[in-house]
Amino acid sequence: MAASAPRSDDVDPSTRTNVTNAMKGEALAHVTYREYAKQADRENLPEVAGLYRRTAHTELREHLTEQAKLIGLVGDNAANLRDSTSGESYEATTMYKNFAEQARADGDRQAARLFSEIAKDEAAHHAKFVEAAKAVTDPSSGTVIPTDVQAKRVAVRAGEPKVSSPRTLENLRTAMKGEAFAYAKYTLYGDKARETGQPRLAKLFHRTAAVERTEHFAEEANLAGAVRDTAANLCATIKGETHEGTQMYPDYARQASAAGDTAVADVLNDTAKDELKHAKAFSGELSKLGRQCSTSS
């Protein structure tokens, strides 16, 4: 790790964009690996499941958290609520609405229904965050931060995509990435609220994060066929970790260094090394299964 983090307002805009993209990848890896671990459990592969859970923890609580500090992702509670209300508004009124219309036009009615249902959920989240913002910024208003958010636990089962349109499948993957990043951000925002003596706000953030992961992401993952058998999951993981370790993070590090963000470059180079270690560990588990990845995959 770098000896000291840069001030977030000193980071070049291109570096900020790259770090944000990296965080989205780490968030997606975190939630996906948790589902891969459950699939390994179903196949009675405890060592693989354990490796996935440990790596998932690293992706969120080390890589993403460290990157968030580099760009000042987590602000004060009021700033975190502004970001959350903005994101939920976009998803409710624009993104999911458009995805539903496209899925309906493409004949993917199940996906259209899901996108429409999630849009309603996000609108409800937006309303609760607006109420919470009023309570935080105007304590004299008497507004109470709502905490009545309940998450369903949806099981993600291994299988092929359940949609026919490539556009719908791509939209599902985009939505999954968004839900994963929302989960990660709300987790960190909730931690911040708890640390600053706002337990009700912490509960609102953490409970909303749970909805994004265990309900929205899971439902989308089932339609997208995001989980397969463990051997296939391992191959997808090895490919992803290798890409991050050999290409994405080194490229981002070089760009950060060229922009004068040397401390950020140090962190990204360290992360690249971690991802290659992950790839090696997962390759070892695949070898124990006596399986190989297709060179065309």
Automatic annotation (TrEMBL):
Gene3D superfamilies: 1.20.1260.10. Residues 1-23 are annotated as: Disordered. Residues 9-140, 162-293 form the Ferritin-like diiron domain. PROSITE patterns: FERRITIN_LIKE. Pfam families: Rubrerythrin (PF02915). This is Ferritin family protein. InterPro entries: Ferritin-like, Ferritin-like_diiron, Ferritin-like_SF, Rbr2/Nigerythrin, Rr_diiron-bd_dom. PANTHER family: RUBRERYTHRIN.
